[in-house]
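Please, structure for the following, as tokens.
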Amino acid sequence: MAVYTPVSDAALDAFLADYEIGEPRALKGIAEGVENSNFYLETTQDRFILTLFEKRANPEDLPWFVALTEHLAKKGFPCATPVKARDGQALRTLEGKPALIVEFLTGISPRKPNIAQCRAFGVALAQMHKALEDFTKPRANDLGPDGWRALWSARAKDADALEAGLSDLISADMDLITGHWPAPQALPTGAIHADLFPDNTFFIGDRFTGAFDFYFACTDFLAYDLAICLNAWSFEDGAEYNFSKGHALIKGYQSVRPLSETERAALPLLARGAAIRFFLTRLVDWYATPADALVEPHDPLDYASRLRFHRQAKGAEDYGA
């Protein structure tokens, strides 16, 4: 989350007039993350999150994201559910940007998840995948292997400015990963979150209470979503893989949806690909984020460090599977 577009009092009043959620009492920008403008919104009736879509969000994709979260909510999966205006539509326009209000989830995003939280999250991730089995409308992953070259174009010097020789390592990683990436029908596929970091979840103690920020969701390998989460949840201070956390996450996941042998065999490659994806988007954001934005871009070297671990991994067992 972040804030790139400020919202005036007059614009907010006019925007909320189309809803039946009360009068505004407070609007506060949320600084975490890097993609969209997000605000904590309190009205005379309840609390909500208001999002203005920026940067990588394609307005044509937004109805798909809304439909996905509404599907999850109907299945009983805890997620930030869109709030519809009086005309029955959830998507609106505010300050010239596509905008959405979602329900407020109760809980705290863990900064350093513990082992119990990792296991509970693994269970929730598999439950989400199961709940989306009959959500069949596809959306391509714009940040999959086909999109990596475009992100990397003209960025080699930026990588070497962060760490000498890094561009050669990243280029070699991309060549290997894209050359061995599974064919579309090789692994179980479905709707995935694709960005389910700890700061996109809520917990009360060790109990998972919800997921949000589905705006990178797409159709891809289910095991790739798990690989993204292993990168996001199981590394300490960027470089060290916490085997106990990874084992707990995978064990929780498999208690609901066991991995196939094909998925297990592909896990190291998928985890390495996930690290490349987030290294590249963080590298772009590191140099492209406006200086006056209420946001602190994430250090891409965190994912360069993760790649060092993935290069040495031989099998799913190295991740705790």
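The chain has two domains: 9-59+80-103, 115-319. The domain at 115-319 is CATH 3.90.1200.10 (Aminoglycoside 3'-phosphotransferase; Chain: A, domain 2).
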